[in-house]
Design goal:
single chain; about 400 residues; alpha+beta; Butyryl-Coa Dehydrogenase, subunit A, domain 1; Butyryl-CoA Dehydrogenase, subunit A, domain 2; Butyryl-CoA Dehydrogenase, subunit A, domain 3; 3 domains; four-stranded mixed beta sheet; four-stranded antiparallel beta sheet; 10 strands
Length: about 400
Amino acid sequence: MAFKGVDYLHVDSLLTEEELLVRQSARQFVEDKIIPVIRDCWKDGRFPSQLIREMGGLGFLGANLDGYGCAGMSNVEYGLVMQELERADSGVRSFVSVQGALVMYPILTYGSEEQKQKWLPRLQSGDAIGCFGLTEPNFGSNPAGMATRARKDGSDWILNGEKTWITNGSVSDIAVVWARTDEGIRGFLVERGAMGFTTSDLHGKLSMRASVTSSLSLSDCRVPDSAMLPAAKGLKAPLSCLTQARFGIGWGVIGAAMDCYETARLYSILRKQFDDRPIASHQLVQEKLAAMITEITKAQLLALHCGRLKDLGKLEPAHVSMLKRNNVAIALDCARSARDLLGANGIMDEYPIMRHLCNLETVKTYEGTDHIHALVIGERVTGVQAYR
């Protein structure tokens, strides 16, 4: 059955006609192009790369950025696109999120005009793919401990270090790599084929299987001075990119929660048990569905308010931490409750629930763990930093 949406509290009445149209376009694309292939992609451990240029044509790549071919959507419209994509699979939303928030955004915000002209139109159309190299094997939640270094050598820079858990790493044409220099942390655009730059994929994943995850190795990797992002100075630059991506995650996981809820709701109506009655007639089943729809509705309102604040230029990183932390947590709870309601069928790939559940375990951890975001919120309300 085609997805009709989940809107218990008439949240749609708070959306403009244009926002509803954007969501419908994304929803139709998901129904027509992603849903039919995503189960096999997840089983096979491959990304549906045949859809990249079509997503670019629909304006999904760098959707909330302006200029250079970007769609210039509002942040609410962008969030609704993320929601629909993650309803299909977190790996698809992750690809779009990385391309726009972690590659195109830093180039647009911190890059030279030459870098913008060269890369942004190609990244927007899907003719080029990018990745974001910040996380290291020994420094995940503590990017300030970064070991990757860049040193000046004449008119070039020499980069040495390792990055890991990098979405799209081995399929990227350009990598935004963050490295420590004598001037502090700086960003560099490292192109595929650069001498001393190699990638390798991470295998054995039981989560985010429809997403390419890689390690990047930089061994005396030489790049020209023009590869540096001139305005990206200090750790605030990469963290600002992560804030953009976390905003999209906060919206996206609502889609995964919706898919789990709607699957469980329909199943409970159709599944007969005990005197040939639908299991939806049982109080414990209704209690679980009531809890799920309540948390989804609260997540929708939180995301929408954050989107409105972002469009007004008033959204702060600590706000995004609450959005990401809360909405990932409720999505995981919804997936677990849905799995429970489906019983043994909940683990079968005929249904999307176990796939969402496995994916969401990764989403809870990446781009700021649940615990790190709790400490960001804690610092905001107490004024006391507790990271160490």
